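Board notes (copied after class):
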Amino acid sequence: MLGARISGFWGGTPTQHRVRDLSSGGARFDQARSLRVGSTVLVSVGALEEVGATVVWVYDDVAGLRFAQTIDPDAARSKTIVSTGGSTANRLKRTEPSPRGFKAVGTGWAANLDDPYRK
């Protein structure tokens, strides 16, 4: 899932949004009820650092923005925003990949699926 951070030129706290569609000229964002048609904002999408955009439309909780300059959507998708949530992230166990190249599962009944002696 690709995330975005939108902030106004006036400062304030940036808001987090989910990117529904992304093109070189604009994007459609979820969780956009606070945006107003005609507003000019700064948008950071994935690896893309702040580009100016204008809010073209808002309907329910979805908004369409037009970028002030064209972007490379593939470059923006090269990094996604992930919430690290302290307590959950600290409990996750890092595991080594299995011999077949898949990430091994380290907990529960699924941990023994690749065990040849368990079958």
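Comment from the instructor: The longest strand covers residues 11-22. The chain is about 10% helix and 40% strand.
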